[in-house]
């Protein structure tokens, strides 16, 4: 990427995943959905800044080392004098994870101050950070204040154990969806948020409320992309799964990387309209423009590689090229 490319700003939690396998063995690895997306983008060659909250304890030091080695820079105020949040992921025999959380989320004003973040081409947020008080209010304020030409992406990545009821959370999720250019959600997210509703129908409706592109991930079933006038099926990349920790975050970083490289995000796009010219005439019966298809394929491959190794360990660009 050009050296002068403005940064992507990711706002959200960085925490330590404590993985507990089917055999009861435990290991601690860096995690947190937005932090994983920042890590994935940096490994794919993009300048990234992360506005987050982590402590000066051993977990926090390891998080800083882990992110910094891949090129993620923390914004001012992201390190605080408090314990680093943790998520205990219990893995079943198939590598699927269920979570328990010990999370505190807030941000100092400096962490998202444009004076300290520098020029921002794209802003990404989601998961715990977008809904957990008091920090969620700061996330909403940053998204609403995004400058003209700064595109926005959002991944709900919902954690019901930390939230209210689906009915309570739905309006806030829908507001963030409407403010975003790109949205990625899993079928599990939409199943919890809209019980009894078809996830694809919900994603299709979201695509008419503001975002230019909504992508529904379906686990082993791949993904499906929706825009105002159509949809596109994304085939899964077959791999031998070690675990699924961080797979959705890797999909998000691969998708954003492809769209950034194609010039469909950031770069001073004046209207909040990812590829709207490219999508305006496309319908489900037509081929999507190659640069959009390539971005979706890159997302699927990035997630697939992540599933082949333990924890949230997204690939570098060279690995995907190989």
Task: Reconstruct the topology from this structure.
Elements: E1 7-11, E2 15-20, E3 26-31, H1 33-43, E4 48-51, E5 54-55, H2 58-69, E6 72-74, E7 79-80, E8 86-91, E9 97-102, H3 114-117, E10 120-126, H4 128-131, H5 135-144, E11 151-155, H6 166-179, E12 182-186, H7 187-193, H8 199-206, E13 213-217, E14 223-227, E15 230-234, H9 247-261, H10 276-280, H11 290-307, H12 317-321
Parallel strand pairs: 1-4, 1-10, 2-8, 4-6, 5-7, 10-11, 11-12, 12-13
Antiparallel strand pairs: 2-3, 8-9, 13-14, 14-15
Helix pairs in contact: 1-9, 7-8, 9-11
Description:
The protein has 322 residues and is an alpha/beta fold. The chain has one domain: Ribokinase (UDP-N-acetylmuramoyl-L-alanine:D-glutamate ligase), CATH 3.40.1190. Helix content is 35%, strand content 22%. The chain has twelve helices and 15 strands. The protein has helices at 33-43, 58-69, 114-117, 128-131, 135-144, 166-179, 187-193, 199-206, 247-261, 276-280, 290-307, 317-321, and strands at 7-11, 15-20, 26-31, 48-51, 54-55, 72-74, 79-80, 86-91, 97-102, 120-126, 151-155, 182-186, 213-217, 223-227, 230-234. The strands form three sheets. It has a nine-stranded mixed β-sheet, with helices on both faces. Strand 11 (151-155), helix 6 (166-179) and strand 12 (182-186) form a beta-alpha-beta unit. Helix 7 crosses helix 8 (199-206). The model is unreliable at 269-273 (pLDDT under 50).
């Amino acid at each position: 990427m050009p050296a002068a490319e403005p940064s992507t700003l990711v706002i959200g939690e960085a925490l330590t995943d404590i993985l507990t396998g089917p055999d009861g063995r435990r290991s601690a690895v860096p995690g947190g959905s937005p932090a994983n997306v920042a890590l994935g983008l940096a490994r794919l060659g993009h300048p990234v800044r992360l506005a987050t909250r982590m402590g000066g304890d051993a977990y926090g030091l390891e998080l800083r080392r882990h992110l910094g080695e891949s090129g993620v820079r923390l914004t001012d105020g992201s390190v605080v004098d408090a314990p680093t949040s943790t998520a205990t992921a219990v893995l079943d025999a198939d590598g699927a994870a269920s979570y328990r959380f010990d999370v505190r989320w807030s941000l100092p004003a400096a962490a998202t101050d444009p004076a300290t973040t520098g020029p921002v081409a794209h802003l990404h947020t989601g998961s715990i950070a977008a809904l957990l008080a008091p920090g969620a209010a700061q996330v909403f304020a940053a998204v609403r204040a995004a400058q003209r030409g700064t595109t926005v992406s959002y991944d709900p990545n919902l954690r019901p154990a930390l939230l209210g009821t689906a009915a309570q959370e739905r309006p806030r999720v829908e507001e963030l969806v409407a403010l975003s250019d790109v949205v990625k959600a899993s079928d599990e997210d939409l199943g919890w948020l809209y019980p009894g509703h078809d996830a694809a129908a919900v994603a299709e409706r979201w695509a008419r409320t503001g975002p230019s592109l909504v992508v529904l991930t379906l686990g082993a079933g791949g993904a499906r992309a929706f825009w105002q006038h159509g949809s596109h099926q994304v085939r899964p990349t077959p791999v031998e799964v070690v675990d699924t920790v961080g797979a959705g975050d890797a999909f998000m970083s691969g998708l954003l990387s492809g769209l950034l490289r194609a010039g469909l995000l950031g770069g001073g796009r004046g209207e909040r309209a990812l590829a709207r010219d490219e999508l305006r005439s496309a319908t489900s019966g037509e081929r999507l423009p190659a640069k959009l298809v390539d971005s979706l394929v890159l997302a699927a491959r990035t997630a697939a590689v992540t599933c082949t190794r333990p924890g949230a360990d997204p690939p570098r660009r060279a690995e995907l090229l190989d």
